[in-house]
């Protein structure tokens, strides 16, 4: 049985600073509270017992998994079953339901009563969903946050491999100044081919010492990653902030991970394997239709922001973006729609800026707890 999230789920200080703004009138808002969480007195099979991962006691770091879903109930249930069946299971699991209309929330409560379920009053896209889930994880005591889409099925050792890579990296002598800010999994499609949609961007001009340290940990250095199975350091997230919820979809993971990794270490861990069960095999430049608007607007927003990329990086990634857009147009069967989306995206990207994330989440019905600073 679900209940509204109580202030005991966050610190007293965080509870006192919850955003006062609620969602605007919405026909769906009456069917659900702004946020609901499953009973925390029950644990789904596979969840580790709380209290076994205290940093003060020197035990293992606490991992919170965040899964974002929208109208893909059956895929989500498969994903959650795989998450909870990990050889090293996460300590907590948060599911963010983007106002699904296919019975997702009820199915999660019935099948996984120990999972914390955040039901948003409206669809906030992948960007808003991950921002919401991370906000809830950061309000708690997570040391690491494991992010993934609802169509991601991790193999049994996926999380354990990510944590092992992190331990190998930090155990090296001399020890790095900071642990890796994020570690990404190897992403396959259903036929075991490498999925081109989720290929992390290698880190250009990585120093030999960084490459050697990554290789010793069984990894390679990367500059960005997708939200399809990536383990992020919670302390660094508290310093650098949440994903930009206003992006809605496309480039939210690129912006967030490049911002997180600027001046930090990011790794791809080939030993951690997940299957991304998209309908088709292909990258994001395969004829996107009117969703191309988000690609254009969000990329311009990102290039106007100084936080994610250094000046030379913006120049390099800007060139690669133009080449990818050209390939998208060349392979499209509906160039009129793409052209319209391009014009609208350029106009929106130049004339506007992203709304603050807390405002976007408040509109979706989530009152964001204040993040505890390290």
Q: Layout of helices and strands, plus pairs?
A:
Blueprint: E1 2-4, H1 12-16, E2 36-38, E3 63-69, H2 73-84, E4 92-97, H3 104-111, E5 116-119, H4 125-139, E6 144-149, E7 152-154, H5 158-170, E8 182-188, E9 201-202, H6 208-216, E10 220-224, E11 230-233, H7 234-240, H8 252-261, E12 266-276, H9 292-304, H10 311-331, H11 335-351, H12 357-363
Parallel strand pairs: 3-4, 3-6, 4-5, 8-12
Antiparallel strand pairs: 1-2, 6-11, 7-12, 8-11, 9-10, 10-12
Helix pairs in contact: 2-3, 9-11
In short:
This protein is an alpha/beta fold and 374 residues long.
Give a quick set of tags describing it.
disordered N terminus; 374 residues; single chain; alpha/beta; 12 strands; 2 domains; globular; Spore Coat Polysaccharide Biosynthesis Protein SpsA, Chain A
Indicate the CATH architecture of the largest domain. Answer: Alpha-Beta Complex
| Alpha carbon gap, first and last residue | 34 Å
Q: Extract low-pLDDT stretches.
A: 1-45, 49-54
CATH class of the largest domain: Alpha Beta
Secondary-structure element pattern, one letter each? EHEEHEHEHEEHEEHEEHHEHHHH
Helix vs. strand class: alpha/beta
How large is the count of helical segments?
Answer: 12
CATH topology group of the largest domain:
Spore Coat Polysaccharide Biosynthesis Protein SpsA, Chain A
Which quaternary structure do these chains form? single chain
Main sheet specs:
10 strands, mixed
Helix content: 25-40%
Give the radius of gyration.
Answer: 20 Å
């Amino acid at each position: 049985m679900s209940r509204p999230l109580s202030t005991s789920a966050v610190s007293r200080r965080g509870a006192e600073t919850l955003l006062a703004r609620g969602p605007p009138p919405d026909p769906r808002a009456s069917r659900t509270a702004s946020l609901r969480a499953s009973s925390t007195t029950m644990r789904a099979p596979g969840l580790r017992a709380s209290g076994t991962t205290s940093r003060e006691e020197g035990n293992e770091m606490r991992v919170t998994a965040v899964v974002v879903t929208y109208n893909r109930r059956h895929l989500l249930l498969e994903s959650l079953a795989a998450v909870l069946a990990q050889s090293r299971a996460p300590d907590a699991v948060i599911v963010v339901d983007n106002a699904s209309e296919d019975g997702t929330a009820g199915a999660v409560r019935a099948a996984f009563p120990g999972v914390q379920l955040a039901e948003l009053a409206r669809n906030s896209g992948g960007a808003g969903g991950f921002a919401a889930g991370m906000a809830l994880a950061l309000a708690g005591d997570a040391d690491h946050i494991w992010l993934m889409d609802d169509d991601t099925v991790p193999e049994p050792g996926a999380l354990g491999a990510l944590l092992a890579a992190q331990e190998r990296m930090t155990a090296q002598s001399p020890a790095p100044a900071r642990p890796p800010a994020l570690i990404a999994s190897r992403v396959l499609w259903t036929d075991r081919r490498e999925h081109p949609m989720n290929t992390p961007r290698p880190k250009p001009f990585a120093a030999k010492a960084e490459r050697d340290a990554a290789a010793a940990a069984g990894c390679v250095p990367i500059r960005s990653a997708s939200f399809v199975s990536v383990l992020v350091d919670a302390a660094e997230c508290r310093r650098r902030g949440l994903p930009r919820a206003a992006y809605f979809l496309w480039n939210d993971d690129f912006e967030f991970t490049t911002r997180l990794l600027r001046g930090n270490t990011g790794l791809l861990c080939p030993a951690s394997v997940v299957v991304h069960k998209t309908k088709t095999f292909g990258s994001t430049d395969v004829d996107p239709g009117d969703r191309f608007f988000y690609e254009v607007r969000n990329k311009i927003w990102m290039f106007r922001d100084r936080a994610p990329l250094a000046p030379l990086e913006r120049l390099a990634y800007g060139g690669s973006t133009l080449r990818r857009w050209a390939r998208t147009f060349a392979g499209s069967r509906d160039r009129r729609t793409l052209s319209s989306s391009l014009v609208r995206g350029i106009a929106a990207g130049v004339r506007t800026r992203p709304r603050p994330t807390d405002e976007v989440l408040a509109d979706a019905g989530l009152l964001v707890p204040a993040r505890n600073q390290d």
